[in-house]
Write a structure and sequence with these properties.
The chain is of the alpha+beta class and 481 residues long. The chain has 2 domains: 4-169, Chloramphenicol Acetyltransferase (2-Layer Sandwich), CATH 3.30.559.10; 172-387 and 429-475, Chloramphenicol Acetyltransferase, CATH 3.30.559. Helices cover 38% and strands 21% of the residues. The chain has helices spanning 9-16, 38-47, 92-103, 139-149, 172-198, 206-227, 255-265, 269-287, 332-346, 351-364, 367-378, 443-463; strands spanning 4-6, 25-32, 57-60, 68-71, 81-84, 114-119, 126-133, 166-167, 245-249, 253-254, 297-304, 308-309, 318-325, 383-388, 396-397, 400-408, 417-424, 427-435, 464-465, 474-475. Strands 9, 10, 11, 13, 14, 17 and 18 form a 7-stranded mixed beta sheet that branches. The protein has a 6-stranded mixed beta sheet with strand order 5-6-7-2-16-15, with helices on both faces.
């Protein structure tokens, strides 16, 4: 009999979130300027990707309140690693169409739910499209997987025997993006764990008891506020999604340039990128003739809740925060400062802890209860926005240098838009996946991302007082004097 083990509650929750209109599959694409040998890629997957034993397992008995991982007795790597060719010019548009079509295809539950597709004729090189069900791992864990199957040179003398530990701090982008939130999560989680372990000792330590009481009150208050949070503005981004998806990505921008602008205006890398994304969404709504006055587009943002990716461990270990993007603000600098303020408010939030706890509960409960909770939370947002760190040095897969990387996160419930920010080798990549019925032309939003970033650069050059102290130059104007 095949080996079996119980499925974690959070992983089970992600498995049961699958819907025909929104599949819980993480999709990624790796782009290469040179051709790739299919046999060598297959060998890498077989010898290094499958070191993570979970990828040899399928899920069985998952219709109730729990699921079971089982070794696939008929495992055959040929069912998972495929070679394909694009039609026509085999350019970016054709690759985006190919990825979009795959997003609407469910993975077979009778085998481990992952696939690698080698696109052998992409431009002058190749591309690899990766599909992995979210119940196997979250984005941070999958970065560890990527590091485990890639190298820092084309032909290493001896590949690493095990996947490398990947610390969140290794990537300056993500460290700048959500380090404040991660610190808040760690302190909140530690305090919450302390409440459970303290017991009668609290009676001998009134100060600690008071701290725990304050934490409990804050946790309860914020949890209630999150539950009662109203829906965001009724823009064209909201609606009932269908099975057809659109996946696109923008030309990458320089990480150093993003850092320079952030330093000039006293904002983090995160503030600058969020401001550019918000501006792109605003420009799209205006282009469609929609009113953006006082409009807000709320995004669900996953927050990493582990310090590193364990070498052999996968799973889902993240919480969620709800961030409202002020698409109603026209001035680029005002928009960036407002996002900075909102991010500062989220730094001490207990939302991630509450969200992870809620996922645990729903994963152990009946399907109807989980559907209710997912539906309730998805009504409060229009998008899922994910920032995932990538290595800042070139990586090689099967001997070929990775030129670009992008991924798309799944959307649960009735959410119809995913926004992905990914950094790799000194550049920031921006991708989107949308429901074709709600946003049939996400390339119009993508095209605005770089334009709006350049607009922020221009506004900074024109309005910043460069004679002010260098730590956050002050903008010229009523709010900066």
């Amino acid at each position: 009999m095949a080996a079996r083990e119980s499925m974690g509650a959070v992983d089970h929750a992600w498995l049961r979130m699958d819907r025909p209109a929104n599949l819980m599959i993480i999709t990624g694409v790796l782009i290469f300027r040179e051709p790739m040998d299919f046999q060598r890629l297959t060998h890498v997957i077989e010898t290094r990707f499958l070191r993570f034993h979970r990828f040899r397992q399928r899920v069985v008995n998952y219709s109730g309140t729990s699921g079971t991982w089982e070794d696939d007795p008929n495992f055959d790597i040929r069912r998972h690693v495929k070679r394909v060719a694009l039609p026509g010019d085999a350019g970016k548009v054709e690759l985006e169409d190919y990825v979009s079509d795959r997003m609407g295809e469910p993975l077979d539950h009778d085998k481990p739910m992952w696939e690698f597709h080698l696109v052998e004729n992409y431009r002058e090189g190749a591309a690899v499209v990766v599909r992995i069900h979210h119940c196997y791992a979250d984005g941070i864990a999958l970065i560890g997987v990527t590091l485990g199957i890639t190298d820092d040179e084309p032909n290493p003398a001896e590949p690493a025997d095990s996947p490398r530990h990947f610390h969140a701090h290794e990537n300056d982008v993500i460290h700048a993006l959500f380090q404040p939130l991660e610190n808040a999560v760690e302190s909140t989680y530690d305090l919450g764990r302390g409440v459970l372990n303290a017991g009668l000792g609290l009676a001998r330590n009134p100060r600690k008891a008071l701290a725990y009481a304050r934490y409990g009150w804050r946790f309860t208050t914020e949890s209630t506020e999150l539950t009662l949070l109203p829906a965001d503005s009724p823009t064209r981004f909201k609606g009932t999604p269908g099975p057809i998806k659109r996946a696109v990505w923008a030309e990458p921008i320089s990480l150093e340039e993003v850092k320079a602008i952030g330093h000039a205006i006293g904002c983090s890398v995160n503030d600058v990128l969020l401001a550019s994304v918000t501006a792109a969404l605003r420009a799209y709504l205006i282009e469609k003739g929609d009113s953006v006055e006082a409009a807000e587009v709320r995004a669900i943002v996953p927050v990493n809740m582990r310090a590193e990716v364990p070498g052999e461990s996968l799973g889902n270990h993240f919480g969620l925060v709800f961030l409202s993007l002020p698409v109603g603000i026209a001035n680029p600098l005002e928009r960036a400062y407002e996002l900075k303020r909102r991010m500062r408010e989220l730094r001490s939030s207990t939302q991630p802890v509450f969200a992870l706890a809620l996922m645990n509960v729903t994963g152990m409960g009946p399907q109807a209860f989980q559907d209710f909770v997912v539906g309730l939370l998805s009504q409060k947002a229009s998008a899922v926005m994910t920032n995932v760190p990538g290595p800042q040095q070139p990586r090689y897969l099967a001997g070929v240098k990775i030129d670009e990387q992008m991924f798309w996160v799944p959307q649960s419930g009735d959410i119809g838009m995913g926004v992905s920010i990914f950094s790799y080798n000194g550049r920031v990549h921006f991708g989107m996946s949308t429901d074709a019925g709600l946003v049939p032309d996400p390339e119009r939003i993508i095209a605005r991302f770089g334009e709006e970033f350049e607009r922020l650069v221009l506004t900074t050059l024109m309005e910043v007082d460069w004679d002010a102290p260098s730590e956050g130059h002050r903008p010229i104007g009523p709010s900066g004097r």
